[in-house]
Amino acid sequence: AVNENSLKCLNEFLASSSAQERGQPKQLVFYIRSISYSGEEYLREVKITLSTTDLRATVMKILNCFGLSDAHVPKATQNDNQSTNRPIDWHPSFYTAMGRDNPFGINNRSIVLTLRSWLRMNIERSRSHQEGMRYIQNDIARLLHKFQTDLCLQAIRFDSAWGIQHFRGCLMSFDRLFKTHPKFLKHVLKGKTLVFSNCTGVSRLGEVVLSSEDVPQTWITMLKSVSAYEAVLARLPTMEAKLSDLLCQAQVVRREKKLGHIMAEDYELLLNRVLNSLRRCQDYVFATFNGKDLSHLQVRVEGESNPLMLSSLGQFLIPASVPGTMMVDFIKENMDKAELILKDIPSLLAHEEKSRLEALEFLSLLELQKDESVTPAQMISSCSRLIEESWRLLDPPSSSGGVTLQGSRLRVSHYYSVMQDGLICIPWDWVGEDDL
User: Helix, strand, or coil here: 195?
Assistant: First the structure.
């Protein structure tokens, strides 16, 4: 909805610019998908302030803000600069005498939105959503308990961008399936983790994944072939051990992203490609590391063409498409940095959890979580500042401008939002009253 409104405003501004009409400066906000340095997807906020009637300058500014190429934009000609059809820049006294608002008298400094001011505008909406979805939450809790008990599941969760109502719909469909195939489902799923996500199969972690967009008949077809994945899962540790040998005993680890499950058979193909790349350059590996033991380093094979990078957890994220020599060079250049992160990460994660629990208690929250793209350091910073600001966030609502987070569910993310179930999302670097 934010992107749609901004596009409408942008269209109006471009139309007025092409007609050489002078309007008030506009600030547009867009949310675009980006990949963080940890390899996780998140929504990045892009703010664009438009104030010129120069159509070319406006287009160039938009392209630059989104990091897009402007090579295809025609260069400005001398005739463009000598155009006589230009708007008149009136002196401020003209607008005063005519009783009109000066479109250029607006403070160009962008309005800073503080956490407290945003909460004042949205906390009641969150409470309304939370109360309205309470019966759905209760229904979900009932079905989760039923499946975990009757099917002896290790765990069951929902990893999808769809809302809570969609999760309930998945559980109700699965419940109907369970009523018609109780013995079969218990035999197939006993002791396993069941995940409703955006794909169907068995993940590289051995979790049974059902797409929330598929019909129950498709689920049954896949569940009948779950046993066939056992052979694939059994081959993965052997292939990871071979990869470790080719990388001087570096640890090969797996970690599933919430919205990016890699199926077992796909992971096998990715491992095979990386193995072949390294086999072709073993002399280069030996010459680069000189037989050094890298067992203290961690490597994750992530996707087909993801960026080659070092994650916030100190793990090397390796895409299958990268050449072996480039992979080796990158590991060599970032070894020291990875060692420092891996050394500090246990205490950092412990500090993060401690900060989260303290903020949860100080603000009397029902729940406090974070997006996968938020690093431990960012979460610690956000929680510490929430604790410092807690006296401002627990004001009685009846007081002037009062706002309280007591009884709310909070997620530390990269943007402000109220989710369908009343969950409040705030950016980790939110602005406090003392930051102005």
Answer: strand
Q: Which residues of the chain have pLDDT under 70?
A: 1, 17-24, 35-42, 53, 67, 69-73, 76-111, 258-259, 396-401, 436
DSSP letter string over 34-89?
Answer: EE-TTS-EEEEEEEEEE----HHHHHHHHHHHTT---TTSPPPPHHHHT-S-----
CA–CA dist 182, 431 (Å, integer)? 52
Long-range contacts of 204-208 (CB under 8 A, 24+ apart): 204/233, 204/236, 204/254, 204/256, 204/262, 204/263, 204/264, 204/266, 204/267, 205/254, 205/256, 206/233, 206/264, 207/256, 207/261
Segments in 196-313 forming alpha helices (H): 216-223, 229-246, 264-279, 282-289
Residue-level pLDDT at 108 = 41
- How many Å separate Cα 328 from the centre of its chain? 29
- Model pLDDT, residue 398: 57
Query: Whole-angstrom Cα distance, residue 342 to residue 31?
Result: 32
User: Would you kindly state where each structural domain of the chain is located, as residue ranges?
Assistant: 2-98, 115-129+363-435, 151-224, 237-346
Q: Which amino acid is at 249?
A: Q
| pTM: predicted TM-score of the whole model, two decimal places | 0.69
Residue 423 identity (one-letter amino acid): L
- The vertex-5 CA angle with 2 and 73, nearest 5°, equals 100
Residues 6+ apart with CB under 8 A from 145: none
Q: Which amino acid is at 352?
A: E
How much is the pLDDT for 164?
Answer: 85
What one-character-per-residue DSSP string does 129-181 give? HHHHTHHHHHHHHHHHHHHHHHS--SEEEE-SSS-HHHHHHHHHHHHHHHHHS
Secondary-structure percent of the chain, ordered helix, strand, coil, rounded to 5: 45, 15, 35
Cα 21 from Cα 28, distance rounded (Å): 19
Q: pLDDT value at position 80?
A: 52
DSSP run (H or E) holding 325 = helix 324-362
